[in-house]
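Subgroup meeting minutes
Present: P.N., E.W., G.H.
Scribe: E.W.

1. P.N. recapped why we're keeping a running log of single-chain structure predictions: easier to compare across weeks, and new members can see raw inputs and outputs side by side.
2. G.H. added today's entry (166 aa).
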Amino acid sequence: MFDIRKAVPEDALGITIVNVYTWKTTYPGLMPDEVIDSRIAELIEKAEKCRIDIEQNDNFFIAVIGHTIIGFCCYGISRNKKYNASGEIYALYVLKGCQGLGVGKALFSAGTNALKDRGYSSIIINCLYGNPSLGFYQHMGGKIISQKKDDIKDKSIIEDILYFEI
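Output recorded in log:
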């Protein structure tokens, strides 16, 4: 059905396409349209940043069917100073047509196992308020422990911060 593997630099464009597509299908009404549309316009630049991230940090898993990337997980040290002893899953996205097949669970497990191997016993995930994936993260054991507010393009967004023991 699908395979999970570590990403290599040549996967960067496919990862970025999945990222842009999932933002377009998940975040309308939750994120300003111009932010979503700018990601599409900046596809090549974002892919180059992703390639560099893969080379420097080796922190991506991808889900593939054949040679096509259908999802990814990016992880590392927590960016939140309040939870600096935790790891963090920065991004976990699966194409809408491939959701419900266990891809998200497999990517989540790969990311959490990699963080566990790095010595973490807990992780956090920021989930945009209103994101339908919140239920998935709660099903995976996440507990909302706080919220974070950001301003993007003159619009305030709220993110739920979920905490997981791993």
